[in-house]
Amino acid sequence: MAEQYVSAFVVEEEHFRAMVGSRDEDLVRTAVAAVRPLRKAGKLLRATDAREVERALREIVSGLPTPSRAGGYGWLLELLAPALGEPVGEVVLPGRGWHDLEKALCSWGLASLAELWGRAWSFPLTDNPRQPDPWPFPVLAPLKELDRIRDELTAFDTDRVYDDYGFLPGGDDVEEVVPLLDESFPAWVDATIVHGRDLLLIRDGGR
To answer: Residue 159: which H helix or E strand, with range?
Structure first.
């Protein structure tokens, strides 16, 4: 069965943006050295080739990331996010269709969360148009947006999921959606607000 993995991190966006053109050789060496042990521990899905990691990071720290680079740079975040941020949780969502959750979220009154779920972060490119459908799919919620998302989640009645489950992409994923909205997201948002930072989600695995 296909599964989608969602990993949550408390981060500061500026730390990632500052990488571009930084010529930070220590960052490159540290990240490359971490690939092998993390790969052996089963912690990496994509950033498993140290040579490719080094090439991609050198493009970033040199200040010359390529907008047309095959696969983009988002796949590096599974390696960089734990180093530059703090993991605050993860969930595994069984089945397919989770990338199309926005319509269901909107129907339940979670408009801000729906907008966030479908908004890919364009790391490390600031002026480049967002990729229409990147994978893995990184999502960044700046601190200033989190109070609004928390208010929506606090007011949310999980019974609506059972009443309007037809909006779910898979149609029968109610038992996975309820804890995602009732437990995981509130915990991630609260942890990020307490730290006064930004929330990064990385969605990967099956679509």
So the answer is: helix 159-163
Domain enclosing residue 58, as ranges: 3-205
Question: Phi and psi for 138 in degrees, rounded to 5?
Answer: -85, 140
DSSP 183: I
Q: Three-class SS of residue 39?
A: helix
The total of structural domains in the chain comes to 1
Residue appearing with tokens 């796949």:
75
The closest alpha carbon to 52, from 24, 21, 76, belongs to 76
Residue 200 has pLDDT above 80, yes or no: yes
Average pLDDT of 85-92? 95
Strands of the chain (E only): list them: 3-11, 86-94, 137-141, 198-205
Q: Which residue type is seen at 40?
A: K
Report the length, in residues, of the chain. 207
Locate tokens 């966030």: which residue?
Answer: 116
The values of phi and psi at residue 139, to 5°, are: -130, 130
Give me 23's structure tokens. Answer: 């010529």
Q: pTM for the complete prediction? A: 0.92
